[in-house]
Write a structure and sequence with these properties.
This protein is α/β, with parallel strands linked by helices and 722 residues long. It is built from 21 helices and 24 strands. A six-stranded mixed beta sheet has the order 9-14-13-12-10-11, sandwiched between helices. The chain has a five-stranded mixed beta sheet with strand order 16-24-23-18-19, with no helix packed on it.
Length: 722
């Protein structure tokens, strides 16, 4: 018989056990509950589909749930832009709102599932999001799940997402976030189960770890280990990562879960153990509390073999029960029990979704054709495999929206009096659309549509079937083997650009693309990412000038011909905007507007900074154009006298501001003292006296970025003293 709880009413206060006493701390209650368990019962809680323990009032619980950009894989939900698109907003306050909406929908779905006694996967409150791995290489298919290539931007967005998911109640978590994949993971996907990422201590501390550290500091409830090894150790069985660093140095006291199937990888692929028992022992000894997979079915056998202790099993069970208690799963009432299903993909969340989609779009090129005057358009040709695709709106790890707006449909609704001729143009990646058919079997139709049109919109890109996680049905699936679009799409772009009419490329992908012929010959290029259910409407509104674009690239767009190291090389040399060796196609932090912004009066609170002190400053930004718009104020720091390798410059502050034409605003900023530290080869940090440059502007402080953006950054010198 379950002890009385919110699903089984009727407390008898005189009969309460210690673990039922809601006046005690969650840790105290969890410890008391686990003390009542047999060791077999404790072990049963360490599998992701945790067992029911009826005599203690513990129902079944499935830990596996996803919420990367909306509640995923559980039916209807608001489908927000993919995480890389969220990052392109450079708006952490907005991302917190997104995560708050996601957790509200998660609670609503959980509340309903509990009433219906549905304890299956994707029905719980433990969301295995966000992904704060660094998008170090544009070929990585899962890079779309991240917040880009910069550790500072990733940390800011990740912290905001965690805070939104977990809520601001003083006692209960709204849902439990989980930072993944700890700690060095960014492809190749195909070898992830056996891959050994060789990483220097300097790169670990400088690039791969900072976002995880920030999320631990902000109170993220869970951490998921990665599939791969790091310097020989499998991440989900790494004492140096999970015990020495995460638990002891950083003080993390939440739960740790393996990635799904990662523990069996120890003996099946990594070959660091020989048997399931040895693999389980390695994971448990490293503090991996939960197994997404089935290896922890061997826990009792591992205990009997003397390879782990009963105390280790009980410690893990206590951490897992503590998380469930923080979520209010054993209490009479939480602040979130009354969230009803009506919030799921509701009007309010759809409005937020549209706002986010608008702010995520990045205008990469515009020769003056945009914004379009709809009164001058009598005939428009819309073409491309993603023009009317719902799949390309979604990205991976997504739910099912109640309503989708494709780009084609949204353009139609904006031009009720114009003729719209639509052609799919080509397959996403195959040579022909019809069977039987010849390669390029829609290009003649495309040419006809172009001949009739005033202008052409070509909607290109990828989708989750060929860019994402562990998808290898086709040779091009999962990771990318080229930065070009698939050949049928390149042929389509070339055909469109050679048709003698203005051409706008709208690209939907989760990563950098080299548009080849389109780079020079398209009149405008918009990077739309995987923009979510409202994405088509956001694109159409941008095309017709209902707002000024404001998104910025969270990743570098490289040319196909580049000096990037081998995909399997985890050194940061030559990677990302910090260490790139040549001018890119489009730089990190870049994005055009329909208006113009100018920067002036950069003032710092000192020109001689003492080591360990934060730097304060302010800068004036003015809208010198003719249209209201948002600008992303970016502050970069350059170490001019470092004795070790340092970035060319690095982002250390950003803020979105909205300005009317002619309006100016002074933006105050703070550069945290840690940004002034150098990272030595052994991974240690120290303050090194010398000169620094502080830059502020709407792009990176290099001539190439400034020329593309059409505006200069402003700068000040400062001296760091010990």
């Amino acid at each position: 018989m379950l002890w009385p709880n919110k699903y089984n009413k009727g407390y008898d206060m005189d009969r309460l056990e210690k673990y039922q006493n809601e006046n005690l701390s969650f840790k105290e209650r969890a410890k008391a509950m686990v003390a009542q368990m047999t060791i077999e019962e404790c072990a049963s809680q360490m599998l992701y589909d945790s067992a029911k323990i009826e005599r203690l009032g513990i129902p079944f619980y499935n830990w596996w749930n996803e919420a990367l950009h909306g509640v995923a894989r559980a039916g209807m939900a608001t489908v927000f832009p993919q995480a890389i698109g969220l990052a392109a907003t450079f708006d952490d306050e907005l991302i917190k709102q997104v995560a708050d909406a996601i957790s509200a929908e998660g609670r609503a779905k959980y509340n309903e599932a509990q009433k219906l006694e549905d304890y299956g996967a994707y029905k719980g409150l433990t969301f295995w999001s966000p992904n704060v791995n660094i998008f170090r290489d544009p070929r990585w298919g899962r890079g779309q799940e991240t917040y880009g290539e910069d550790p500072y931007l990733t940390a800011k967005m990740g912290v905001a997402f965690v805070k939104g998911l977990q809520g601001d109640d003083e006692k209960y978590l709204k849902s439990a976030a989980c930072a993944k994949h700890f700690a060095v993971h960014s492809g190749p996907e195909k070898g992830r189960h056996e891959f050994d990422a060789i990483v220097s201590k300097k790169d670990m501390v400088e690039t791969y770890l900072p976002a995880f550290k920030e999320l631990v500091d902000c109170g993220v409830e869970g951490i998921m280990g990665a599939y791969n090894r790091i310097n020989g150790e499998p991440c989900c069985g790494s004492k140096s990562l999970l015990v020495d660093l995460l638990r002891e140095e950083w003080g993390f006291d939440g739960y740790i879960t393996s990635d799904c199937g990662a523990i069996s990888d120890f003996h099946v692929f990594h070959k660091v153990t020989s048997t399931p028992v040895e693999s389980v022992a390695m994971a448990v000894e490293s503090g991996c509390d939960l197994n997404c997979g089935n290896m922890y079915a061997y826990i009792l056998q591992t205990l009997k073999a003397g390879k782990i202790t009963e105390e280790q099993i009980r410690n893990s069970a206590e951490r897992l029960i503590t998380t469930r208690m923080k979520l209010g799963m054993f209490d009479e009432k939480t602040p979130y029990d009354d969230i009803g299903y009506e919030v799921v993909d509701c009007d309010k969340h759809r409005a937020l979704n549209e706002e986010v989609a608008r702010k995520s779009l990045v205008l990469l090129k515009n020769n003056g054709i945009l914004p379009l005057d709809k009164n001058k358009i009598k005939n428009i040709a819309v073409m491309g495999p993603n023009a009317n695709s719902i799949v390309a709106l979604e990205g991976n790890y997504h739910g099912t929206a109640n309503q989708y707006h494709t780009i084609l449909e949204a353009i139609r609704s904006e031009l009720p009096n114009a003729r719209i001729n639509y052609s799919k143009g080509c397959h996403l990646f195959e040579e022909k659309l019809s069977d039987p058919g010849a390669p390029g079997d829609r290009l003649s139709e495309v040419k006809t549509h172009i001949s009739l049109a005033d202008l052409v919109v070509v909607v290109t890109g990828l989708d989750e079937t060929i860019e994402g996680e562990d998808e290898f049905e086709q040779d091009i699936a999962g990771d990318k083997n080229t930065l070009y679009l698939p050949k049928p799409q390149r042929d389509l772009v070339r055909t469109a650009c050679q048709g003698g009419k203005p051409v706008i490329i709208v690209n939907l992908s989760g990563s950098a693309i080299d548009f080849e012929y389109g780079n020079e010959h398209a009149d405008a290029i918009i990077q739309a990412w995987y923009p979510g259910a409202m994405g088509g409407k956001a694109v159409a509104d941008l095309l017709f000038g209902k707002y000024s674009p404001s998104g910025k690239l969270p990743v570098t767009f490289y040319y196909e011909e580049n000096s990037l190291p081998d995909f399997e090389d985890y050194s940061m040399e030559g990677r990302t905007y910090k260490f790139i060796k040549e001018d890119p196609l489009y730089p990190f932090g870049f994005g055009l507007n329909y208006t113009k912004f100018a920067y002036s009066d950069l003032i710092l609170n000192t020109d001689k900074l003492e080591a360990g002190q934060d730097l304060s400053g302010k800068v004036t930004v003015q809208n010198v154009g003719s249209m209201e718009g948002d600008e992303i104020v970016q502050v970069y720091l350059k170490d001019e006298e470092a004795s070790v390798r340092v970035p060319k410059h690095k982002l250390c502050f950003f803020k979105r501001v909205s300005l009317k034409p002619g309006e100016a605003i002074t933006v105050d900023f703070t550069v945290n003292a840690e940004h002034f530290m150098i990272i030595k080869d052994d991974g240690s940090k120290e303050f090194e006296p010398g000169g620094f440059l502080v830059y502020a502007g709407g792009c990176q402080p290099d001539p190439y970025s400034e020329a593309l953006y059409g505006m200069k950054t402003v700068s000040c010198k400062i001296e760091l003293r010990n």
